[in-house]
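Here is a protein:
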Amino acid sequence: MRSEIKVLLFLIVCLLAGEWGTRWLEPALSKDVEHLAGLETMATRLEPRGRSNVLLLGNSLTRCGIDQGLLREGWRLPSGEAAQVETMYPDASGILEWGQGFRRYVMETGSRPEVVVVGTGRVHLIDSSEVQSERLAAWLVPKDERWAFVKDQKWGLEEAIPFWLASWSRLFANRERIEPLVFYRLVPGYEETSRLINHERGLAMVGRSGGKEQGAVTTRHLQRLIDDVAKVGAKLVVVAMPVPEKYELPREVVEVLKANGVLVIDGGSEHAMEVERFPDGYHLDAEGARRFTTLLIERLNASFGDTGPR
């Protein structure tokens, strides 16, 4: 019995040490964690009633696909000033994370961007898009709102259990970031294999079920984000980001955007990029981002006249 107790105590000590170490080293685990840790600071730069503030909202497609420096230099807002761009684009996130992040770091802080630009792939604006419940618990949902949030989502155990574990443990919340740091160093061929998986995953997201979603496509979270952006007095722009295969946004998403007068810039079906511009099989390289951002600036400047986007 004593040996079992010793083993149990050893495991507890290891877990506590891992938890402490993770919290201490958390910002260094990945660029994504560093980005998430900086969202509160980002919110302070979105000055209330700031006429030249733009929030760029999305995931890694947006981070890699839009050249922020070029966007700042080339886009002139209705105020006549250059766009002061702030970003919120957690990796592998979708409409649920974007809406929750907007409420926590923009609405609840009193920040007031002039324009919110949402970069999306084909499936990221529908309610059934992939959800990172661990990230929601650790970074996007305040402690006093977690019970209400989980109840509102009507999650099953598959999403609810990781959410609650991540709300209590940073080690658990960051496990998917810690594993690659170990595998890159210890597993031969891990980087090449992960790149292949990323490519296949990207194609699957674009062409799922031959271009049709399984089950009913709902847009509750998208409508809520549209309403929230309007509440802070900002204008909303949706940008369909380029990926290797051309795609169109789901019909249900297009209908909601059209009904709410949201400006849509289509980079999914209108702007073809050579396969060489996607070195990892899913994200644009620097040259691809420069070319797409140039096209994006042309559309934004053409759409933001005296009356703004229509």
